[in-house]
Amino acid sequence: MPYRAMGRFTHEAVAVDPDTGIIYQTEDRGSSGLYRFVPDVPGRPAAGGRLQMLAVTGHPGHDTRQGQRAGRPLPVEWVDIPDADPDSDDSLAVFRQGRQRGGAVFARLEGAWYGDGSIFVNATSGGDAGLGQVWQYRPTGAAGGQLILVYESTDPDLLQSPDNLCVSPTSGGLVLCEDGSGPDMLRGLTPRGEIFDLAALNSGNTCELAGATFSPDGEVLFFNVQTPGVTYAVTGPWSRGAL
What we know:
Elements: E1 11-16, E2 23-27, E3 34-39, E4 49-56, E5 74-80, H1 93-100, E6 109-115, E7 118-123, E8 133-139, E9 144-152, E10 162-167, E11 174-178, E12 185-189, E13 195-200, E14 209-214, E15 220-225, E16 230-235
């Protein structure tokens, strides 16, 4: 059964704040929004709730795709989407409602993850070079919070088209799965915004990496290669390094 109140748009990923039950959702379009669904009953989205879109306070319609500065906190708020399931064949109908109310625009939001009290998302084609951005939303109450650009790639050899991501349970660092035009890699990103190579596929393999996640004890990192469909498990101890 579809949860219509959660919105009809080009969904990509979700991340749930375990303290509030709020569900954050990304939209994989060239012009996309960052959404949250505030359930009437935490843990029961089928019971209904409110769909909202992130907006930068004092800057209606803020465009995050270019001209951003890493590390600068932007105060944000959430605007309501009046009709989460519009009777329209326009795949951007929900996005347009949010934009009309001042919602911010991102470049292809994909992976989402809750960790360290924040929501992290990847803008796959964001940034001045179009190579990708990593964003952090830090809630500071029910109404708003801060949006921070953690990292923006300027060189495809450092990061290209980040897609899935996860947060290390030991350090708060990030694992980024690339989905670029050439051979993809797993990249690591420290809480200080320092990026490093973590793992590479065999030479010539250009298949997408996806689904990185740590075991509950933080000792094993799992990730997938879409073709031919392989899951890898990499053991730690991660706490001795950047992750």
